[in-house]
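hey so i finally got around to running both of the ones u sent me last week. sorry it took forever, my laptop kept dying halfway thru and i had to restart like 3 times lol. anyway pasting them below in the order u listed, first the sequence line then the structure token line for each. didnt double check formatting much so if smth looks off just lmk and ill redo it

first one:
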Amino acid sequence: MSKVMMNCHKTRFLQRIITLPLFLKTAPSLKIIHSHILRQHFANNFPGTTGTNRLFSSTSFLRAEMANCGGGDSNEFDMNYDQLLEAQKNCDILIIDVREHAEIDKTGALPGSIHIPMCNVADELTNLSGDTFCEKYSRDLPSKETKLVFSCMSGRRSSIVQDRMKKLGFTNVYNYKGGWSEWEQKQKCP
């Protein structure tokens, strides 16, 4: 197996660890395991340093790992600002803002979207009944063919969710690469 492929497999594993719900990462025993796994992977993949003498955040670490795996590359399922404006007019398209609650409280959700935090998207779309989903989000539960658009702050987390949903069999999933940052900037300067 090539080194790039091995890095991709490691990255997917790390994405699962890094994107654990906050309460799991902060539980004392799991926090130690989470930290140890990241430090060990860092030490193994960046010779000349040790995981214990270098400070890093899981977000910046994930970005570096995704770059090794080709994450973030443009593809046909990326959506730009103009395409998002059109999607917002179509009630058959479900736009999901995957940022955390604190981010939504600070800025508000992307107009026309529903808010489901990144770590809950797969569970909400696959395990809720149609009635429960409709009651909770005032939208119909999407099928695996429904056009879904994921958005976050800058397009990175939403691309992870997009990839996860593709693996779960959703066939029409898009990532708004500009995210809230681009949305806010374009709204200020039309």
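and the second one:
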Amino acid sequence: LILTPIIVLISTGGFDTTFLAIEAVNPAHFDMFKGATFIGIISLMGWGLGYFGQPHILARFMAADSVKSIANARRISMTWMILCLAGTCAVGFFGIAYFSAHPDLAGPVTENHERVFIELAKILFNPWIAGVLLSAILAAVMSTLSCQLLVCSSALTEDFYKSFLRKNASQQELVWV
């Protein structure tokens, strides 16, 4: 997500050429709030701010070895998230310029806009590097899924099993459940 927008910029001719190509497709792409409503903006803020309270993110912080490591972990995770989210937006934004210059390759992206990263990785990178980039998507999905499974199983065990079925269950029994 950091490397792909840079490669797209290079392949489309730099910032100026890329921005001119995006503007040629639709100048409204540069207006972030075009068509936005008050409810839409509040919804986006709720989604963005709610990210930090998601169980799979909190589970990683709860697994910290000490309270002292939390501050450093917070700095690293926030920096990484800002870079990744900026890269994600840049991939989509610069993808407009790339696929407007290469309409013959735009079929899968026109069909499903969420395939921009996948298609750019397949087109712009060596197949070996593209394979690593595409496997990163699967790795991120698996990481999130494993944390979600841990959170769900903990919630069911602690909140349901221990609260309603066996109030005096030992820690070992809870681990087995």
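quick thing i noticed on the 2nd:
The radius of gyration is 22 Å.
anyway thats it, ttyl
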